[in-house]
């Protein structure tokens, strides 16, 4: 089994026993495996095995784990990077180059694709080779209640209170001027990148600019008349 999302090459202890491999070949290893649920599991050690993939043989270092025998061997990113392999889960095949030749190895049969975790799973019928995980639906929607003032509003309030501002008075240095901050109007005619206006929109925009220029011109004329 090849998994490009796994950071280790994994070999279950049961696989070594089925292959009659001498367990004394297992070397100590300081590697620790962290499952997808965050639990930590120590490995039994590491071992070098010679495996055949298609017409080629590879010497691969596996981390030995005492886990259920859901797969014989798991080849992770260490082997994928060292062999320069390109796995495809969609087409169930793997490609790599040997002596300037592209080797393609197809999957022999369909497998239930999942990742070994500490999450309990249930078996389908009597066939223990088809495990499927069972999950519970958990709501992650939180009720934050009423939304308070933003951080910027709180900062403005602290600055005003620090300068002894009295609510209701003007915002000037001597209490003159407006008594409320200027509110920025939301621009409702925003367009995204690559927007192409229609002919009608272009005509309306030009008409609006023309009317604005006329109003400005007549306002200047009006101010110039005594």
CATH topology group of the domain at 10-111: Cathepsin D, subunit A, domain 1
Helix/strand class: alpha+beta
Shape: elongated
Which CATH architecture of the domain at 10-111?
Beta Barrel
Strand order of the largest sheet: 1-5-4
Biggest beta sheet summary: 3 strands, mixed
H/E element sequence: EHEEEEHEEEEEHH
Radius of gyration: 35 Å
Number of separate helices = 4
Number of strands: 10
Alpha-carbon distance between the two ends: 93 Å
Which descriptors apply to this entry?
226 residues; Cathepsin D, subunit A, domain 1; 3-stranded mixed beta sheet; 10 strands; 24% strand
Description:
This protein has 226 residues and is an alpha+beta fold. Among the domains are: 10-111, Acid Proteases (Cathepsin D, subunit A, domain 1, Beta Barrel), CATH 2.40.70.10; 148-182, no CATH class. The protein is built from 4 helices and 10 strands; from the N terminus they run βαββββαβββββαα. Strands 1-5-4 form a 3-stranded mixed sheet. The longest helix has 26 residues, at 199-224. It is elongated, with a radius of gyration of 35 Å. It starts with 9 loop residues before the first strand and ends with a helix. Mean pLDDT is 71; it is low at 111-135. GO terms for molecular function: nucleic acid binding. Residues 152-198 form the G-patch domain.
